[in-house]
Design goal:
By secondary structure, the chain is mainly α. The chain is 40% helix and 4% strand. A two-stranded antiparallel sheet has the order 1-2. β1 and β2 form a beta hairpin. The two termini are 22 Å apart.
């Protein structure tokens, strides 16, 4: 699971708070600007909400509540995609 904004070990997404900093691969796992294969149910729900325009309407009416990122991450952790289930991406020391 790799974000398309990860080049080497630096983030290339100018909107991400970690932009252009050296990263461990595990940083992408919790990034709200992640743009790669779905990590779990949270990413799938996010994609559907944005594709249908519901996210834009909610942000226009309610503003940014700040809870979406936490819910997305929680759903990803609770219901990972089968490709990511049980995989520990923590870098191992040699």
């Amino acid at each position: 699971m790799t974000c398309k904004h990860l080049a080497g070990n630096k983030c290339t997404n100018a909107e991400a708070p970690t932009f252009n900093r050296h990263l461990l691969p595990t940083v992408c796992a919790g990034c709200t600007h992640y743009d790669g294969p779905p990590r779990g149910l949270g990413d799938t729900v996010h994609t559907v909400i944005e594709a249908t325009g519901v996210g834009t309407v909610v942000r226009t009416v309610l503003g940014n509540c700040g809870g979406c990122a936490q819910r997305r991450q929680a759903l990803n952790e609770k219901f990972p995609t089968s490709a990511n289930a049980g995989i520990d991406e923590t870098p191992k020391e040699s």
